[in-house]
């Protein structure tokens, strides 16, 4: 299989006021062509940093170690100019908030034409025609009217459809959807999930879905990568990770999801303890302090990602039971 | 047993239209809540669910006296209010604690947490020394160490900010806490910790909760009863187990299926209509897969389809596979508030 995006031992370090902050450490992950990857983890797990690194959108205070290879090109050995050319051409995003992603004072049609700035061989009327056709494809009735409207005239669900249409107009190799349904109601959320599933053929590469909603992952993704405190702790096919989680953190996280608990209960499970600060990391396993199955060795030896069934898991109990 | 809170035929209208229009004396209003009635017992948790724009937050605000009512009445712990100027509001508000949607926006960034937590006490004339002591107690109650008293909101995490808003909501020892989306945006394990905290507080003090949420998975675990809102009306209310096992309203079914509940369910299409253009007849008919001509012309009355189980629908759904039971209306359609 060919990987569209290949992350090799990627670490991201921010320059903090009190010294460097290693927000992401040693993530190795391959995104296969034609698949949807769910990137899950709690706040502070490094999902946003990792996604920003894939888009080469990290702030200047951040430095990236390791390699991020997009369709054969090492993103961080390219010059800024070449990298910039990739964004909006081979990479596109759908952001969390459809209310701020679109410019409120520019008509939808104009914005969708601008989204195609990286397609130089088309004239403006052609781009507008493509925009209208794409709106129709994402299930928007009466695209001609919509093209002339402003974002505030559209509901949240429609705006997210417009944002998805915009991202698909350039047929990206990498589409990153960052919490695309968080701001939407449950009924609208389901429509947007179905839309992404229906439109996945338009992406000539892979889709990354950043989310903390396991229900969305289960309904949309092929693969999942679970991040904890800046490290990849488990990755694999959705069915394996969600139904047969091997890492204790994945198990604990899934156990906390009220939607997965069948019998109503007033006392909900939690993961005791807190996430370690990236500036005070433990010597051994990153999850050892909160782990239910911790061994003495876990505090000393850092587990490496190793194959377990179809998944990869960073846990000593899995790699050296 | 008398209810702690009783809301009867509550109507809330917001002024709308342009400034010029209003200056010319045109009165245009949009009806946000249209005849809402509910009861809540001491120590009970009522979940208020529905999509954005359904009026959940407005209902919570109206019960706390923060939004003027156009008609109807609210009775809390034996005190009744019917309008904004009511002298009873001040006494009633002491009985209600609020947890607002966005905790970071709800805390003054320039106030130390102790001052934020005890501001309701200051409003009620309690002295500085006593306030400081109570701040420590309240922080301990929500599981935060005493040194949080001197911190500012930017120095705490989102989960901790929620705990601070819980402490403030409890500061006057209210009998009712209105929690507006108390776990929105929290990580799963932090969400569990906060819900467990609310549950422990309720077990210790038998405070009642009005729990506003759009997360049905959470509502299923932490509420005793659920009221489903649509376009400013309660379209179904029942004990939590009944809502999930035997939803009677097509809208409730659609919401449940959107949350991944099993079972073949009618799909919901379209968007929630604008309040300015309320549909005729049953207000849900524009999106209802089962709508008939009757639904398009005649507003449905409230039907009792089980114990404490009320549905505002002409054709309440029976448990899967069975025909609809013919149950007469629980009470006649309440008079519309419009003249």
UniProtKB/TrEMBL annotation, chain A:
It comes from the Bacteria. GO terms for biological process: peptide transport; transmembrane transport. One of its GO terms (cellular component) is plasma membrane. The keyword tRNA processing does not apply. Residues 7-254 form the ABC transporter domain. The lineage of its organism: Bacteria, Pseudomonadati, Pseudomonadota, Alphaproteobacteria, Hyphomicrobiales. Its main location: membrane. It is a peripheral membrane protein. This is ABC transporter ATP-binding protein. It holds the Pfam family oligo_HPY. Belongs to the ABC transporter superfamily. InterPro entries: AAA+_ATPase (IPR003593), ABC_Ni/Peptide_Import (IPR050388), ABC_transporter-like_ATP-bd (IPR003439), Oligopep_ABC_C (IPR013563), P-loop_NTPase (IPR027417). It is found in: Cell inner membrane. Keywords: ATP-binding, Cell membrane, Membrane, Nucleotide-binding, Transport. One of its GO terms (molecular function) is ATP binding. Transmembrane segments: none annotated.
UniProtKB/TrEMBL annotation, chain B:
Residues 5-256 form the ABC transporter domain. One of its GO terms (cellular component) is plasma membrane. Keywords: ATP-binding, Nucleotide-binding, Transport. Residues 318-339 are annotated as: Disordered. It comes from Ancylobacter defluvii. Its main location: membrane. Belongs to the ABC transporter superfamily. One of its GO terms (molecular function) is ATP hydrolysis activity. It is a peripheral membrane protein. GO terms for biological process: peptide transport; transmembrane transport. The keyword Nucleotide-binding applies. It is found in: Cell inner membrane. This is ABC transporter ATP-binding protein.
């Amino acid at each position: 299989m060919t990987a569209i995006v290949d992350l090799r031992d990627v670490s991201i370090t921010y320059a903090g006021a009190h010294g460097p902050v290693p927000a992401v450490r040693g993530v190795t992950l391959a995104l296969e062509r034609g698949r949807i990857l769910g990137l899950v983890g709690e706040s502070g797990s490094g999902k946003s940093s990792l996604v920003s690194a894939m888009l080469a959108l990290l702030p200047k205070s951040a430095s990236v170690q390791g390699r991020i290879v997009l369709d054969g090109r090492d993103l961080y050995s390219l010059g800024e100019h070449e990298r910039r050319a990739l964004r909006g051409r081979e990479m596109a995003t759908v952001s969390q908030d459809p209310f701020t992603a679109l410019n409120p004072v520019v008509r939808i049609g104009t914005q969708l034409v601008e989204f195609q700035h990286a397609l130089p061989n088309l004239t403006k009327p052609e781009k507008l025609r493509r925009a209208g056709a794409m709106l129709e494809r994402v299930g928007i009735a009466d695209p001609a009217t919509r093209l002339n409207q402003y974002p505030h005239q559209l509901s949240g669900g429609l705006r997210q459809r417009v944002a998805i249409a915009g991202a698909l107009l350039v047929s990206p190799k990498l589409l990153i959807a960052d919490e695309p349904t968080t701001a939407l109601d449950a009924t609208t959320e389901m429509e947007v999930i179905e839309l992404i599933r229906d439109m996945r053929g338009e992406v000539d590469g892979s889709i990354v879905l950043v989310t903390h909603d396991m229900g969305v992952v289960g309904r949309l993704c092929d693969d999942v990568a679970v991040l904890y405190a800046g490290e990849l702790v488990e990755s694999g096919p959705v069915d394996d990770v969600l139904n047969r989680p091997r890492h204790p953190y994945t198990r604990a996280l899934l156990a906390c999801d009220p939607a997965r608990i069948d019998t109503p209960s007033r006392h909900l499970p939690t993961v005791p303890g807190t996430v370690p600060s990236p500036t005070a990391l433990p010597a051994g396993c990153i999850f050892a302090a909160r782990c239910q199955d911790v061994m003495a060795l876990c505090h000393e030896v850092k587990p490496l990602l190793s194959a377990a069934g179809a998944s990869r898991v960073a846990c000593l109990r899995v790699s050296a039971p | 047993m008398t209810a702690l809170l009783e809301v009867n035929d509550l109507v809330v209208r917001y002024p709308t239209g342009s400034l010029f229009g209003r200056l010319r004396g045109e009165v245009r209003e949009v009806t946000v809540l249209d005849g809402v009635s509910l009861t809540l017992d001491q120590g009970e948790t009522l979940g208020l669910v529905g999509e954005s724009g359904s009026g959940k937050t407005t209902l919570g605000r109206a019960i706390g006296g923060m939004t003027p009512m156009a008609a109807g009445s609210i009775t809390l712990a034996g005190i009744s209010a019917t309008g904004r100027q009511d002298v009873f509001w001040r006494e009633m508000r002491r009985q209600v604690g609020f947890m607002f949607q966005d905790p970071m926006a709800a805390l003054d960034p320039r106030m130390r947490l102790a001052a934020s937590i005890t501001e309701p006490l200051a409003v009620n004339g309690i002295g500085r020394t006593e306030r400081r002591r109570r701040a420590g107690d309240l922080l301990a109650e929500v599981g935060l160490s005493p040194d949080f008293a001197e911190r500012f909101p930017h120095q705490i995490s989102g989960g901790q900010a929620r705990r601070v808003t819980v402490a403030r909501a409890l500061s006057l020892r209210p009998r009712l806490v209105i929690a507006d989306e108390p776990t929105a945006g929290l990580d799963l394990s932090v969400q569990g910790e906060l819900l467990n905290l609310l549950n422990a507080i309720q077990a210790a003090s038998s405070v009642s909760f009005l729990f506003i949420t759009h997360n049905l998975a959470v509502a299923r675990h932490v509420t005793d009863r659920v009221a489903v809102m649509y376009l400013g009306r309660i379209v179904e209310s029942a004990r939590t187990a009944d809502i999930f096992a035997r939803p009677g309203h097509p809208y409730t079914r659609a919401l449940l299926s959107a949350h991944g509940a099993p079972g073949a369910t009618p799909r919901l299409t379209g968007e929630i209509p604008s309040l300015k253009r309320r549909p005729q007849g049953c207000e849900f008919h524009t999106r209802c897969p089962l709508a008939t001509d009757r639904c398009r012309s005649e507003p449905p009355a409230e039907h009792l389809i089980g114990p404490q189980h009320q549905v505002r629908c002409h054709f309440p759904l029976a448990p899967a596979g069975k025909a609809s039971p013919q149950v007469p209306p629980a009470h006649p359609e309440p008079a519309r508030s419009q003249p």
